[in-house]
Amino acid sequence: MAKRGIGLNDSTQEKEGRKKISKDSFRRGIRIFSYVLPYKFKFIIGLGFLVLSSLTFMIFPYLVGKLFDESENEMINMYALGLLAVILFQGIFSFFRVYFFAQVSENAVANIRRDLYSKFVQLPISFYEKRRVGEITSRITTDVAQVQDAMSITLAELFRQVTTLIVGVALIMWISIKLSLFMLATFPVLVILAMIFGRRIKKLSKKTQDELANTNVIVEETLQAINTVKAFTNEMFEVARYRTTLAKAVRTAIATANYRGAFITFIIVGLFGGIILVIWYGATLVANGEIERDSFVSFVLYTVFIGASVGGLGDLYGKIQTALGATERIQEILAETEEPTDKRQRPLSEIRRVRGDISYSQVAFSYPTRPDIQVLRDINFSINSGEKIALVGPSGAGKSTIVQLLLRLYDVSHGSITVDGQDIRQMNLTELRANVGIVPQEVLLFGGSIRENIAYGRPEATEEEIIAAARKANAYDFILTFPEGLDTLVGERGIKLSGGQRQRVAIARAILKNPAILVLDEATSSLDSESEHLVQQAMDELMKNRTTIVIAHRLATIRKVDKILVIDGGEIVEEGSHEVLSLNDNGIYANLLRLQFEMS
Ligand SMILES: Nc1ncnc2c1ncn2[C@@H]1O[C@H](COP(=O)(O)OP(=O)(O)OP(=O)(O)O)[C@@H](O)[C@H]1O
Fold first, then answer.
1. Where does 349-435+558-600 sit in CATH, by number?
2. If you measure from the C-alpha of residue 532 to the centroid of ligand 1, how many angstroms do you get, rounded to a whole number?
3. Ligand 1 pocket test: which of 375, 553, 568 has the largest number of ligand atoms within 8 Å of its C-beta?
4. If you placed Cys at 527, which of 233, 298, 390, 500 could pair as Cys (CB 3.0 to 4.6 Å)?
């Protein structure tokens, strides 16, 4: 079968997707909040606590001002206690804010993940061909995490900063319009400059990280292919390559550090200088009796708060952009059209069994990703129920494509395929696929026990049925040699089965599924003769009474089939039984036979 490349490094190559904030993107982004709706009461309560905690915080500078201006001990104690109370309430409100927002965001985000996953498994193969696996998985990990951040932290922060800004500016205006105007003309300008500076540093830091990632790619690649490096005696070549990229990373890192140093100097001199300027002007106003001293202390504190929230808003803007980008990508996936399979898991016993007559009529096909290349043209053949045919031909001829069309992994571009006389496009897709069993070329087992892997063919199967299937597939004997028998774990954390053993597990899976139609994609790599014999016996058992299509790579195994179709360049070029085709001296089949004979 055609294989799809799954790049391990794909996820690390993710781009940081940001979205310009426009009315449109905002409207689309806000739609993700439909996931919050089921938890709206908790959300509103959380919002209430957020308002309370933001407002209590604004009392803080007022009380500090009073405290500083007080000369009576008793009142000093009162104000200090008042401050403590403010902080205490602030703490309690914040706890509940986090508590309620976490309940909402965790649940909403789990629902987004569930919907995305459910979408992923139901999307057609063509969706996967247009994207890299790393890119798809990052939708369900990184993007969703960004949305979660936006729902819990960013939203709360935005609200708090805006409240601080509005209430803060109103309060300082109330204290002294003159000083406020002076402050607003100087301080925010400095804060905005600091933000621009900060953003540039962020960009540079990202560049440093990327360069470091580049050096890591070299380490990963070479260590993974260490045999190749050694075989080509390229150790020193790799060391030199690593040293060059490392030097580049160091240069960028030092440039970033210089920038950061300058930034710190700017913060110290610029921002604090700004505060000194405000304090200086304020002190003059106090000396002239234009404002009270306590109001002046509150003013300075409000100024610091306002400065911090202006700075915070810049950061939040970036976070909102990122979150909008993430939301949009998530929604794009959620809007994709799924395959029309059943939305309910049905036991196989409930599924209508087909007889197994198959007919291809004038089938032509191009893959959706490469519409310009015609992979199949004018394919015509039929198989009666219970008959066996073999597809042979050179690599890339189109054999796997022919069976992929039968499963409707893709739809034909022209012509039609029928099963029991019915066009497969008119059949229920779940029923069609449930009637076809596949033993693939490369058997991939899921991480889990051998029992689970066999039962994948029919999840509702009983223990006896699983054992019977394993027996028929010549797999039970080797399974019993493991101490844990059917419970032996396979896959990444379990034991590694040999190629022949994996194939027999796949055959047991197919026997358990008991489909009317069978597709055998023969392994290209040959097994040792003992294993080969066991696998062949199991295949023969599996093929009994089923319509079978064998994609054959080793011709010795297909002498028993009813008909052989020789495929070349997407067309059927020869057709007939082994006896007939092998007699045609100039034929491709006879040629292939000769080649294989010479090779063996
Ligand atoms: N998913 C795909 N997208 C685009 N083109 C594809 C895809 N899969 C296969 N092809 C192309 O279609 C042609 C037929 O491929 P197919 O896998 O059907 O050949 P095959 O006869 O089964 O080969 P092999 O014996 O090597 O498995 C090839 O040219 C291949 O490059």
1. 3.40.50.300
2. 26
3. 375
4. 500
From the CB of 377, is ligand 1 less than 6 Å away? Answer: no
CA of 334 to the centre of ligand 1 (A): 29
Asked whether 401 lines ligand 1 (CB < 6 A), one says yes
Name the 3-class secondary structure at 589.
Answer: helix
Q: So what's the pLDDT on residue 88?
A: 94
Q: Is the CB of 501 under 6 A from ligand 1?
A: no
Q: What is the pTM of this model?
A: 0.77
Task: Supply the residue whose CA is at minimum distance from atom 4 of ligand 1.
Answer: 367
Summarize pLDDT for 35-53 with one digit per residue, the tens: 999 999 999 999 999 999 8
Does ligand 1 have an atom closer than 6 angstroms to the CB of 375?
Answer: yes
Question: Rounded mean pLDDT of 76-91?
Answer: 92
**DSSP states along 375-438:** -EEEEEEEE-TT-EEEEE-STTSSHHHHHHHHTTSS--SEEEEEETTEEGGGS-HHHHHHTEEE
Q: What does the buried/exposed string (b/e) look like for 403-437 if buried means 16 or more CB atoms within 10 Å of the residue's CB?
A: bbbbbbbbebbebebbbbeeebeebeebbbbbbbb
**pLDDT recorded at residue 24:** 77
Token pair belonging to 242? 């690593």
Residue holding tokens 């979660």?
Answer: 148
Residue 241: pLDDT above 70?
yes
ipTM at complex level = 0.96
pLDDT mean across residues, the chain: 87
